[in-house]
Amino acid sequence: MTQQINGQLIAEHNAQAAARVNLDYETLGEQLARRNVDTHVLKDQVARFAVAVPSWGVGTGGTRFARFPGLGEPRHVFDKIQDCGVIQQLVRCTPTVSPHFPWDKVSDYQELRQHAEAHGVGFDAVNSNTFSDQKDQPLSYKFGSLTHADAGVRAQAVAHNLECIDIGKQLGSKALTVWIGDGSNFPGQSHFRRQFERYLDSNRQIYDALPADWRMFLEHKMFEPAFYSTVIQDWGSSLLAAQTLGPKARCLVDLGHHAPNTNIEMIVARLVHARKLAGFHFNDSKYGDDDLDSGSINPFQLFLVFNELVDAAQTGAAEFDPAYMLDQSHNVTDPIESLMTSAVTVQRCYAQALLVDRTALTAYQDSNDVLMAAQTLKQAFHTDVTPLLQKIRMEAGGAADPVLAYRASGYRKQMAAIRPASGPSSGIV
Amino acid sequence: MTQQINGQLIAEHNAQAAARVNLDYETLGEQLARRNVDTHVLKDQVARFAVAVPSWGVGTGGTRFARFPGLGEPRHVFDKIQDCGVIQQLVRCTPTVSPHFPWDKVSDYQELRQHAEAHGVGFDAVNSNTFSDQKDQPLSYKFGSLTHADAGVRAQAVAHNLECIDIGKQLGSKALTVWIGDGSNFPGQSHFRRQFERYLDSNRQIYDALPADWRMFLEHKMFEPAFYSTVIQDWGSSLLAAQTLGPKARCLVDLGHHAPNTNIEMIVARLVHARKLAGFHFNDSKYGDDDLDSGSINPFQLFLVFNELVDAAQTGAAEFDPAYMLDQSHNVTDPIESLMTSAVTVQRCYAQALLVDRTALTAYQDSNDVLMAAQTLKQAFHTDVTPLLQKIRMEAGGAADPVLAYRASGYRKQMAAIRPASGPSSGIV
Amino acid sequence: MTQQINGQLIAEHNAQAAARVNLDYETLGEQLARRNVDTHVLKDQVARFAVAVPSWGVGTGGTRFARFPGLGEPRHVFDKIQDCGVIQQLVRCTPTVSPHFPWDKVSDYQELRQHAEAHGVGFDAVNSNTFSDQKDQPLSYKFGSLTHADAGVRAQAVAHNLECIDIGKQLGSKALTVWIGDGSNFPGQSHFRRQFERYLDSNRQIYDALPADWRMFLEHKMFEPAFYSTVIQDWGSSLLAAQTLGPKARCLVDLGHHAPNTNIEMIVARLVHARKLAGFHFNDSKYGDDDLDSGSINPFQLFLVFNELVDAAQTGAAEFDPAYMLDQSHNVTDPIESLMTSAVTVQRCYAQALLVDRTALTAYQDSNDVLMAAQTLKQAFHTDVTPLLQKIRMEAGGAADPVLAYRASGYRKQMAAIRPASGPSSGIV
Amino acid sequence: MTQQINGQLIAEHNAQAAARVNLDYETLGEQLARRNVDTHVLKDQVARFAVAVPSWGVGTGGTRFARFPGLGEPRHVFDKIQDCGVIQQLVRCTPTVSPHFPWDKVSDYQELRQHAEAHGVGFDAVNSNTFSDQKDQPLSYKFGSLTHADAGVRAQAVAHNLECIDIGKQLGSKALTVWIGDGSNFPGQSHFRRQFERYLDSNRQIYDALPADWRMFLEHKMFEPAFYSTVIQDWGSSLLAAQTLGPKARCLVDLGHHAPNTNIEMIVARLVHARKLAGFHFNDSKYGDDDLDSGSINPFQLFLVFNELVDAAQTGAAEFDPAYMLDQSHNVTDPIESLMTSAVTVQRCYAQALLVDRTALTAYQDSNDVLMAAQTLKQAFHTDVTPLLQKIRMEAGGAADPVLAYRASGYRKQMAAIRPASGPSSGIV
Questions:
Q1: pTM for this structure?
Q2: How far apart are alpha carbons A91 and A70 in whole angstroms?
Q3: Which chains touch C (3 or more CB pairs under 8 A)?
Q4: Residue B66: which of C131, C292, C296 has the nearest Cβ?
Q5: Where is each Xylose isomerase-like TIM barrel domain found (chains A, B, C, D) (predicted)?
Q6: What does the pLDDT look like over A57-73, one tens digit per residue?
Q7: What is the pLDDT of residues D301-313, one digit of tens each?
Q8: For chain C, how far is it from start to end, CA to CA, in angstroms?
Q9: CB-based contact (8 Å) between A235 and chain B?
Q10: Which domains are present in chain C?
Q11: Residues 262-321 of B with CB under 8 A from A
């Protein structure tokens, strides 16, 4: 194992925090005991929670207006894996990385896999990219990829997805995430129904190539990069497509890909009902697909999503096995810091959702005691589970305060010395 | 036939307009001929277009803040039918009325049917109402109807729907529209999945009672009267429900029931694909379910909806047979004037959609000539088909300018003398 | 003093809670001491926080679709005051009531004032109502009030506001809140500029009648009851009007009256800058003017609003003296329970905002340490101040858990026996 | 004059269209005569309408996900001017170009000015750019420009704007447009009030450097590139800033920079009232700042904006003198074709707004004849003014159908041969 952050440093950091964390953890335990919650059981549950990190997330993001690079940004997938290893070392709930192709293509995937293992991480779902053109790509995706009017372009996009599956097999992945930018910018540009049929046809070819134990995650998005229509614009179209393709196809929920005011936790409930919930791309937003840090804008919404997930798990919902990933664009923060903080935020909401007194909640729901039902959720949300999360990290060898430990380590400065700065440019994902 | 508006008055009104209308119609014909459109064929197609009027639409609407009554408002369903007869007499494209129960309950439905026939209208889909309580109703819908946690309330709501089907059979209806206000105002109030299962269970009982040649229209709505969640919040949930219930169940699209920015014409295309499009409740909105007059805020959107419908019809989409209805709340206009104007607006968009050069459009779409594809739609939308619509009305015995003829008739004043004024109050639908 | 809830009952309720509350309060104090917060100072600050209750808030609300009455609803302003007294008795942070005319008109305002004093409450801002017609009102507000095209209607609306000021003087109020429903439902219905000029002209007459120590609160709203345009649709128009009228005119922020995605805390900051912040109508919403319970949908947003307010107070912002009021519609809960819970929620956010380490925050802001700035707010928001709020209530004679104590008192049942039930109806505010 | 499109080609193109255009123009004239509109007067008015083209608009745009370059894209400002010359040659209503610095910096502005004159265009407002970093720029705008916490960065941004004024003087500009990307991505990142004060302070330095006959256009935007807050997020903040700066500062309205559902035409009316309307950046959008072609999504909204503008002009609104510019991002069309089509679309809405029967409209408004007021606008909007616009272009030497003539000219192919293709990349404005 290649530990990027000195173990001694973490140990000292934790030693300093231990007394405080232990005291707060005990106090929390006493408070929860009054609510008949066994904190040790809770701790074990929360400790098993894991969320994947996207390989592209450790680079600095941007907008169509500009990208302002950070220091020591990763140059290639090996650097990205190394950064993801740092995150996992400190937070201990991000054991896998989700790669993106062709960006993360290498000549030797066994080497990449060993590199990841050495950094303490494995591979999650593979992601294809047909929303931008690559140098030397024969045909352009300017007017679509899997849904392009031209069969040749569709074939090229299908082939790329098949290659992603192939790479994924070598990396130990078990899922392919398909998000495409296809859509239109003008009324009339695309024939909605024929375009959707081409989507289904292309995806059927990809679906047929999936190994038996793989899943295909269909990701919907309301707008951007297309601004009048997108092919899979909402969970309704996503559901239709997943139903048509078959049992391995499921619907992914990205928190930022919905219309304003949408009740996302309701969509989660519906997909659980339909046995079609693939999982999540976590982030937060105020306006559109802002790709802000998870829980930074509306933490209660994130809690409500987990309230649905915990309920589904505890009631034994059929075929319920969602995959979790962070998918954020870090334009003004150190991506490692943002991803660590976000992983902990997601974990926090999971822990709070576990605290909901579901027996009481059910009784309130069934008797229409609306106010007490609402307050039952609020009681769980008000609970500050910080010491619980710290305790879990410390027991697993992570850091009581990941950002402080990370800053103390000087990792970013070291990387800035090794990895050359990129110039200013317009934005990427 | 009981003609409310004096036929002589209409004839004179039309005689005054005839020269102008004929000239403009001929000019339009020449312009369209240059685009290879046969105006006579077009006229026949447009003349067959029909849109239903809701019985509740002829009363003055309101908001939760106030209802400002109009003059001569209908007192009961017989008055409403009479007003609908006036609309049909003048615009000639609103041959049916959609009744709402229990509001429109009478003791003798044969009498009601004959009354309608006498006024030149028939009956469209019947609508149940479980979103408000009626006097002497045993159980309240305050916390839900078809999805209520209590089985007794659900049974009452089911029974009401079964009664609506029964009444509908007597009136010659062929469809039941189910829109419910069930939802929640607080996170935690309702268990989303159990609530949805109750929805399906209750509706299955209703579905099973439908005659073989009937349809069940499921209507989704994002919010209001429930403000945190609604059971059928979008077309995705509506589709899931319709799929579960069976082939007679279809999804109704009300133009005002969507999230901000939603691409409604795309939803139309998806429901056509899924063979689940029930039809429309036409209205317009700027903010929420504003229930404004069709096409008054965004006429191009209404045109784009019809663009999908005409395309589906012309390409022979399977099981495509949508039902059209106006569903508006007239708070500051004479409802008869608004309904006449709106019916003509809907008809206008249908005519414009028929004008789209679909051969050219397909070629532009297939070759990614985006600008020309967009302009092909715009050319149709820019065409002022007013004389065509006037000609159709005049040939059918309606009025060249329905609002002018209606005002000239003094109908509203006569009704104000007969029908007593209601006092100020807070709002209704 | 007429205590509606038996003091002995509250004392016993608190005695039962005392050990737990004291322990949790001490623990919280120790945790906060580590952050250099003196809990006793904090307690004194929070204990001084007060938020007004609207007289109409203790009745059950409704929508345009239905109103489902509750049990024992207040019949008139004396009943309303009594209910408000119960709220204040139990939560101890709602010492004033904001009356609404003509709904709350009585023949003897000294009697009303004494009635309020007897129930432990005083009067806050008076509210005029020109958004609905009253029986025997000479002219209708159907097409506007203060902005009506007809000078007679405007004069009537002005006169009503002058009367409100008069009543307010008798009740000890110091402010008039002017919210009107004026707007339009169709493009073209109103001439925007002339309508606005009429608004200014009418309000100038009202403004001129204000006592020297009064304020005029202008309330903007994006839509409803008007659905295409409203005269004071946003804070920009509100600001323009307040600037034109003079220093006594200020802009009120209702949390539910904004466009989707609006950053409300930014508007607060701008109004503080402009020295024009009147205060707040607190509630929460997911879609429009949902009037849901404060903090029930997005508690972090409420915290962010208070973050601006505490910052303005602590930095000595000029002419900063906002008025706080709850303004919610309770359709499915007991209004007394909702108002008590909401008052505590607002108080909670105030306390959390006081916990923000502003010295640290400023340093992070000035050095662009974005992540730590964000985390500084989050640390305060994560703090569960429940025991602090309980301690404050208990020390002031309120209840540790207001809803439990209220339910134990049987107050609602007693009122249901005295106050007759109203029938089902369509909705009110 | 350097005519890029062969005059003979245009003449032949027009000759082919002449008979049809003349016939349709005459017919339109007869129809309008019945409404008491003198088509010749109308033609003269419309012929004087002009809208500027932004220099950056002739390049292909992109998103943060990708930019798909077009053929023959302009390499520098001289190429851009040449493309703008083509647009003006064919549509004859885009006589000026709005340059953007530092993108359009050259060593000799007299040469640039002569180049523009040679291509038949002049210069409009100059635009500064502090939303992206340039190579060799000493300080970064990553965390803000005119509002940056660091005085050095602010000074750099101010200096850049002063340089823009300087360049503008050389080019004959009379206005500076200031749009900045400053804002924040996290609650807490920026102190809203201090940030706004820095905005005012920086802009005061720029304002003070403006020549006496110049204007400063302040442009607000709700979000993007900042995703939690922006400094000038709406017209309220823009107004506050313009009021503070002085009479030369005015508020620019970009159609895509508003919250969902915003009534933009109302904002126009308010800015006219406040005498602070700078002008427009025309485009269209469905979701956010989509920068789609003007009128492509909601043409009626564009008409309603012009309805306000024509009304303001005809009623002699004080200090009313708006500047018009297209500001679109052309991702999937030939930018020249999109700009020509958009210029004509804007001109079309202006012409339609001139057709509104304002005497009738005023009467309907004053008598609350809502339906007829709405229909009065609709009558104008339904009028197909295509032949009028064609006639105006032909008389001015432009093309009856600019896109057809442009395609026939082979200009793009010629440029593709001269100007080298750029590779695929992520997006720009």
A1: 0.98
A2: 22
A3: A, B, D
A4: C131
A5: 100-291
A6: 999 999 999 999 999 99
A7: 999 999 999 999 9
A8: 31
A9: yes
A10: 7-418 (3.20.20.150)
A11: 262-263, 265-267, 269-270, 272-274, 300, 304, 307-308, 311-312, 317
